[in-house]
């Protein structure tokens, strides 16, 4: 693979990383060189590298179903995972019931329930991560040490194609979820649940 092609593939892979949860990408990039022995894999290294890829892929998939909001009462940031009935909050340590009901009522919880768009983003994120992992030189040398010209061209151009396709899907099917691993958690995320919280806040400050 030429230097220009290698540079293009690395740039495309870096762009793919922007579409994924930051923590997952950092963990993958930190662990894979060690687990793959910098691409010089024996059987144990292949199993370890494959395990990292599978675990990170699952994290990317399920991260698409996580969301966050600011508590109406304490203004703390809460995280939860979307279900078919609403949002299950799992870091509400100061609640007696542990499900965030004092911060979001039942009607507001339903605004966070799983939708079709969540599955689109989940499968797109899963695909993007697998392509991103495949773009790693350590993974390539570990699993495809004797790749021919055709395979090298496919590996070089796959990140660009996956990035364009996933960006198109994310643009056509936008999501308002800001879950675990995504850095752009909006401070006013609670306003999407309902206008009741804003009205209550205005009453308290009046």
Explain this structure to me?
By secondary structure, this protein is mostly helical. The protein folds into 2 domains: 1-64 and 116-175, no CATH class; 66-113 and 184-206, no CATH class. The protein is 56% helix and 7% strand. A hairpin with a 6-residue loop joins strand 1 (66-70) and strand 2. Residues 1-10 and 186-206 have low confidence and may be disordered. The chain crosses the membrane at residues 12-35, 47-66, 116-134, 154-173.
User: Reading side by side through the largest sheet, how are the strands ordered?
Assistant: 1-2-3
What is the helix/strand order? Answer: HHHEEEHHHHH
The total domain count is 2
Strand content: 5-15%
Global structural class = mainly alpha
Q: What is the total tally of β strands?
A: 3
> What is the distance, rounded to the nearest whole angstrom, between the alpha carbons of the first and last residues?
67 Å
Unreliable segments of 5+ consecutive residues:
1-10, 186-206
> How many H/I helices?
8
Major sheet summary line: 3 strands, antiparallel
Mean pLDDT across every amino acid position: 74
Overall shape: elongated
Main location: membrane
Pfam families: DUF679
Subcellular location: Membrane
Keywords: Membrane, Transmembrane, Transmembrane helix
């Amino acid at each position: 693979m030429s230097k220009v092609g290698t540079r293009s593939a690395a740039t495309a892979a870096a762009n793919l990383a922007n579409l994924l949860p930051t923590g997952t990408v950092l963990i993958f990039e930190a662990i894979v060189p060690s687990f793959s022995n910098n691409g010089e894999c024996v059987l144990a290294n292949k199993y370890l590298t494959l395990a990292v890829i599978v675990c990170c892929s699952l994290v990317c998939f399920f991260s698409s179903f996580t969301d966050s909001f600011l508590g109406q009462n304490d203004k703390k940031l809460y995280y939860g995972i979307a279900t078919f009935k609403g949002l299950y909050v799992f870091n509400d340590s100061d609640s007696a019931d542990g499900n965030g009901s004092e911060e979001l009522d039942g009607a507001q919880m339903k605004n966070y329930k799983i939708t079709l768009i969540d599955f689109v983003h989940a499968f797109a994120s899963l695909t993007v991560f697998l392509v991103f992992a495949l773009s790693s030189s350590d993974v390539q040398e570990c699993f495809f040490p004797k790749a021919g010209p055709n395979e090298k061209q496919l590996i070089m151009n796959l990140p660009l194609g996956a990035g364009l396709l996933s960006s198109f899907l994310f643009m056509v099917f936008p999501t308002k979820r800001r879950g675990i691993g995504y850095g752009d958690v909006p401070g006013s995320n609670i306003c999407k649940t309902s206008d009741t919280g804003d009205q209550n806040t205005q009453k308290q400050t009046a």
